[in-house]
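Exercise 7b. Backbone tokens:
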């Protein structure tokens, strides 16, 4: 984390707006990719749980005594 803070401060001190904007956009894209991956993993987990629930509802009654 300190690495990113140092890079950001360096760009600001050098007054290099173009590099800072590129850095900021790259950081935003990384965050969006992380959120997207987390969302996909959550959806996969929910669909897996629904399949398991659906299979347990279809068990034959003769197995239950």
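Sequence design result:
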């Amino acid at each position: 984390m300190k690495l990113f803070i140092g890079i950001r401060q360096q760009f600001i001190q050098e007054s290099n707006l173009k590099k800072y904007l590129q850095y900021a956009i790259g950081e935003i894209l990384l965050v969006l990719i992380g959120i997207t991956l987390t969302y996909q993993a959550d959806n996969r987990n929910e669909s897996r749980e629904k399949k398991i629930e659906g299979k347990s509802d279809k068990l034959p009654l003769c197995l239950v005594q």
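Instructor comment: The helical segments are 2-13, 17-57. The mean pLDDT is 79.
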